[in-house]
Amino acid sequence: MDYLIYLTIQSGIFIILAVSLNLINGICGQFSLGHAGFWAVGAYVGAAYSVFFALPVPDFVNLLIGCGLGFSAAAIAGLAIGVPCLRLRGDYLAIATLGFGEIIRIIIMNMDSVGGPRGFTGIPAWSNFFWVYLFVAITIIFVVNLLRGTHGRAIISIREDEIAAESMGIYTFKYKVLAFVIGAGFAGVAGVLFAHTTQFIHPNSFNFMWSVIILLMIILGGLGSVTGSVVGAIILSLLPEVLRFFGETVSEWRMVIYSVLLICLMLWRPSGIFGKHELDIKKLFGMKKGDA
Amino acid sequence: MSEEMAYFISDFFTYLLNGIAQGSIYALIALGYTMVYGIIKLINFAHGEFYMIGAFTGYYLIINGVPLYIALPAAMLGSGLIAVIVERLVYRPIRYAGRIPALITALGTSLFFQYLGQGTVGADPKAFPTAFENTTYQVGDVFISKIQIVIFVVTMTLMAGLWFVVNHTKLGKAMRATSFNMNAAELMGINTNFIISFTFFIGSALAGAAGVLVGMYYNTVEPMMGLIPGLKAFIAAVLGGIGIIPGAVLGGLTLGIAENMVVGFWISTYRDAVAFAILIIILLVKPAGLLGKNRKEKV
Q1: How many CB atoms lie within 10 A of CB A105?
Q2: Each residue's pLDDT tens digit in chain A (292 positions)?
Q3: CATH number at residue B247
Q4: Is residue B291 part of a domain?
Q5: Pairing verdict, β B126-127 and B142-145
Q6: B298 inside domain
Q7: Residue B211 lies in a domain
Q8: Which positions in chain B touch A31 (Cβ < 8 Å)?
Q9: Cβ of A14 under 8 Å from any chain B Cβ?
Q10: Rg of chain B's alpha carbons, rounded to an integer?
Q11: A102 interfacial to chain B (CB closer than 8 Å)
């Protein structure tokens, strides 16, 4: 039972990460491969707050303060990285963000006060099912509402055609940075929740491979659709665990199976597992709301 | 000349030599990246894994008593053939599906080989057998080891060979034509599919050679060894100007030397950050790379 709850919490954290990366990659169309870096910033800032500076208030207040700090720290990191990087496009942007993500990890690795290569231990377990899913809800509602407003439309227009958007008077650079900063901020919140769930964080748990896995989640669900990233995050965070139940051999080879599944997905359904059906699910949700 | 100055100079030359040795390995891997990118505009993230496969082929051959001068070409052949198979099965069907699916497929292939390696040979690092007696020579105050000399000689030979193939053979001309404009090359009767397979073969064979050399230089091989050198070689390719063959060599050497200088004179724990810092600076200052030409994007 504990294991199931742990898995649910873990997929909740990945939902936040996937939805926030989707804002950058899928909705704004800026290909970022450094999401794990912002996740790490949030995790370390939140953990450092609760270990060194926690105020004498109830735990959940401290957790909320930690989340706020994690959000701001990751958003500031996003601003510092986004302003120079977002002048680049396509493949080059992907590599530059990858580089920044790795630099963040290496800097943390060299910070002795937060454990460096030993990892950061002794983080209080303040986070639980309720707080994680509260923030999942906040993230999803925030992103969905953002998309419905003026700013969201501007962000979508950058994905559709940057040059056309610019000629319609949209200050594309500002909106790209905005999407990047908000996405980074929510990744920071996911980091704070992650640190307070596992109680131990290590710089290597935020390496390049995690950026890739979060990216795979949103691509699996379908780039640009919020429900798609939720489904993608749930599937990809549970799949390695589900494969464990198929016996010893399957469990040993689960990462191989997992990568073959990804290649097959790309070969046969590059638009994500739901493809066009994804849109139908969205409409279904929209109709339910309209009926009520 | 003061004593400190003398120390500084001998240190400097030692780091320079180490840098050149490491840089030529980066350059060998970067060549494959740059050739594949030049021809099908794909960042082949699995390239680091071809390097790992080469290293393991070399490891198993040398451990079974095969001499180095046979093991090295065999390792090149092995990783080259696997790259051709991967290209045929995975990259060819996805070639026209767009940039992002291709990039994801490459990442998936990379993961596949890393974990396949862990599943078959085990995740623990293995000690690479010594193929020959490694002696260290002293020139003045500078030390140079035999393995470093072997690395220089092998890389230089391979690069000269590559240069000859690309610039002075019919196949090389076809490669350059395909890279310049694939459709036009096809209209001129070039079998572009074959040329792409051949490019993959050459690039991965070079990476395989680099794998064997690294195995001898650092004495260990492990399934995850391709990840970081793969990324760094990619950075070297971008630094020199991706798609440009001499650029990969220049980028690889620059990166290797810069890394060893920082490690030697400054802080060793920032070794990996140097490469990424260089990458970001070059992308911001001159995204086309040191030897690249700036191309304006047309609407």
Answers
A1: 25
A2: 788 888 899 999 999 999 999 999 888 888 888 899 999 999 999 999 988 888 888 888 888 999 999 999 999 999 998 888 888 777 778 878 888 888 888 888 888 888 888 888 888 888 888 899 999 999 999 998 998 889 988 998 998 888 899 899 989 999 999 999 999 999 999 999 999 998 889 988 888 888 888 888 888 888 888 888 898 899 888 887 887 777 777 767 777 887 888 888 888 877 776 654 445 555 565 555 444 3
A3: 1.10.3470
A4: no
A5: unpaired
A6: no
A7: yes
A8: 100
A9: no
A10: 19
A11: yes
